[in-house]
Design goal:
Helix content is 38%, strand content 20%. It is α+β, with helices and mostly antiparallel strands. The protein has two domains: 244 residues, BirA Bifunctional Protein, domain 2 (2-Layer Sandwich), CATH 3.30.930; 99 residues, Rossmann fold (3-Layer(aba) Sandwich). The longest helix is centred in the first third of the chain and has 20 residues.
Length: 432
C-alpha cells in the first residue's frame, strides 16, 4: 500500500527539531511579556472578506496566494495568510478598545500561502507576531523595533541588518501614486500582466512584485521619501532619533514598501545574509487606518511578524548553541513480573512528583533495558529484581559519574531520589 506523504510546501517538525522550536518560542514569550504584551490566539480560518479588506485586493497575497474555499454553509473562508488581520478583528469583536491604551498583543500561529515551495518559503509557515493598538507616537515605532532587536539579541542571532522607511499617510501616497503611474506607464512593455492591472489601482504594489522584469523596471522609480508631507517627515525623523537614542543601528531603505496594503508611515525589515534570496526574517510597521477599515474607531496601530522557519535556518547556519533537550531523569529497569509492576508503580509516583521517569514497556531483557536507558539519556537508573523486591532496598546509579546510592524502596523513595539527584541546570537553561 502506498504511503501518504506530507503535502508539498509543508514539513513535519520531529521531536529533536521541536525541542529547538520550543526553546525559541520560550524566549519569544518571555521577551513579549517583558515588553508588556499579552498572548492572543485567533482561529486558523476567517471570513475571506477580512483579508480582502485588510491585506488588499491588489496584493500578491490576495490575488495569488490565499487558500480560499466554500464551507458546507456556502460561506467563503480563508486559511489565515498572516496574523495581523485576525488580531485586529479580535481586538474589535471583543471590545479590547474599551480598556486602557495601549493594548499590546502577541501570538504564535501557523499561516498559509500558496507559494512556490523552497528553502525559507513554505506554504505552511509559522509567525511570531506582536501588535500595538492606541499609540501614535514615534517612540512606539522605535519601541516595537527595539523589542524585535532585543529578541534577536537574546537568541544570539548575529549579522542582521535593520532597514527602515516611511511610506507616508494616504495623502502622501496619493501624490506618490501619480508619480509612479507616470513612471511605469512609460514602461508598460516591461511589466508582467499582474502589474499592468495594478498600474491604475495601486501602483505601489508593482514595487513589491517578484517578477525579474518588474524589478528591473522599478529600479529607477521615484522614492516615497521625496513625497512625504511635513507631518510624516517629522514622524519619521523622530523614529530615527529614538532609535539613535538607544543605539540601534539602521539603514534607511526607500525601496521598502512591504507586501500588504494596510501599512502607513514607518515600515521596517530585519534581513540576514544567511538566508539567500529569502533574506527577510522580520517585517512590520504602522497600520493606522486598518482598525477603522475593519469597522472600528480611528485607532493608530503597529506591529511586526517574525518567520520562525527562517529564524531557525539563520540560527542553524550561525551554529547557535541550542539548549540540550530534557532527558529522562530516572529509568527503572526490571527483571520478572513482580519487579515490572514495582517499576511501574515507582515510575508513576515519580511522574506525579514532576520527575521524568521511565520503565520497560516493551518486554526488553535487562541488558536491552540498560542500552535503552543510555539511548534516551537517563541521568539515573534503578534496577529491580527478586532480591530488591524481597528486601525493599535498591541502588540508584548516576549514569554520568557511576556513583551508586542505596535507597529504601518503601520509605519515601521520592525524597531519597531528590536528595541524590542534582538538577542539571546547565542542561536546562537556554544557551542563548
Amino acid at each position: 500500500m502506498e504511503l501518504i506523504q506530507a503535502q508539498r510546501g509543508t514539513k513535519d517538525i520531529l521531536p529533536e527539531q521541536a525541542a529547538r522550536w520550543q526553546a525559541v518560542e520560550e524566549v519569544m514569550r518571555g521577551e513579549a511579556e517583558t515588553n508588556g504584551f499579552r498572548e492572543i490566539r485567533t482561529p486558523l480560518f476567517e471570513d475571506t472578506r477580512l483579508f480582502r479588506r485588510s491585506v488588499g485586493e491588489a496584493t500578491d497575497v490576495v490575488q495569488k496566494e490565499m487558500y480560499t474555499f466554500l464551507d458546507q454553509g456556502k460561506r467563503s473562508v480563508t486559511l489565515k495568510p498572516e496574523g495581523t488581520a485576525g488580531a485586529v478583528r479580535a481586538y474589535l469583536e471583543h471590545g479590547l478598545a474599551n480598556g486602557p491604551m495601549p493594548v499590546k498583543l502577541y501570538y504564535l500561529t501557523p499561516c498559509y500561502r500558496y507559494e512556490k515551495a523552497q528553502a525559507g518559503r513554505q506554504r505552511e509557515f509559522h509567525q511570531f507576531g506582536a501588535e500595538i493598538f492606541g499609540s501614535a507616537l514615534p517612540v512606539a515605532d522605535a519601541g516595537l523595533i527595539a523589542f524585535a532587536h532585543s529578541l534577536f539579541g537574546r537568541l544570539c542571532v548575529k549579522g542582521l541588518t535593520l532597514r527602515i522607511n516611511s511610506i507616508g499617510c494616504p495623502a502622501c501616497r496619493a501624490k506618490y501614486a501619480e508619480a509612479l503611474k507616470a513612471y511605469f506607464s512609460a514602461r508598460r512593455d516591461s511589466l508582467c500582466e499582474t502589474c499592468l492591472s495594478r498600474l491604475d489601482r495601486n501602483p505601489m504594489r508593482i514595487l513589491d512584485c517578484k517578477d525579474p522584469r518588474c524589478q528591473e523596471a522599478a529600479a529607477g522609480a521615484p522614492h516615497i521619501l521625496d513625497y512625504l508631507c511635513d507631518d510624516c517627515s517629522e514622524h519619521f525623523r523622530q523614529v530615527k532619533a529614538a532609535l539613535d537614542a538607544v543605539g540601534i543601528r539602521y539603514e534607511v531603505d526607500p525601496t521598502i514598501v512591504r507586501g500588504l496594503d494596510y501599512y502607513t508611515r514607518t515600515v521596517f525589515e530585519f534581513v540576514s545574509g544567511d538566508l539567500g534570496a529569502q533574506s527577510t526574517v522580520c517585517g512590520g510597521g504602522r497600520y493606522d487606518g486598518l482598525v477603522e477599515e475593519l469597522g472600528g474607531r480611528p485607532t493608530p496601530a503597529l506591529g511586526f511578524a517574525v518567520g520562525l522557519e527562517r529564524l531557525l535556518m539563520i540560527m542553524e547556519a550561525q551554529k547557535v548553541e541550542f539548549p540540550a533537550p530534557d532527558t529522562c531523569e530516572l529509568y527503572i529497569a526490571s527483571v520478572g513480573e513482580p519487579a515490572r509492576l514495582e517499576a511501574f508503580r515507582i515510575a508513576q509516583k515519580m511522574r506525579a512528583c514532576g520527575v521524568r521517569a521511565a520503565c520497560d514497556e516493551v518486554g526488553r531483557s535487562l541488558n536491552a533495558q540498560m542500552k535503552y536507558a543510555g539511548k534516551i539519556g537517563a541521568r539515573f537508573t534503578l534496577v529491580l529484581g527478586g532480591d530488591e523486591i524481597a528486601s525493599g532496598k535498591g541502588v540508584v546509579k548516576n549514569m554520568e559519574t557511576g556513583e551508586k546510592t542505596k535507597v529504601d524502596l518503601k520509605d519515601d523513595f521520592e525524597g531519597q531520589f531528590a536528595a541524590v539527584s542534582t538538577e542539571a541546570q546547565d542542561n536546562k537553561d537556554l544557551k542563548f
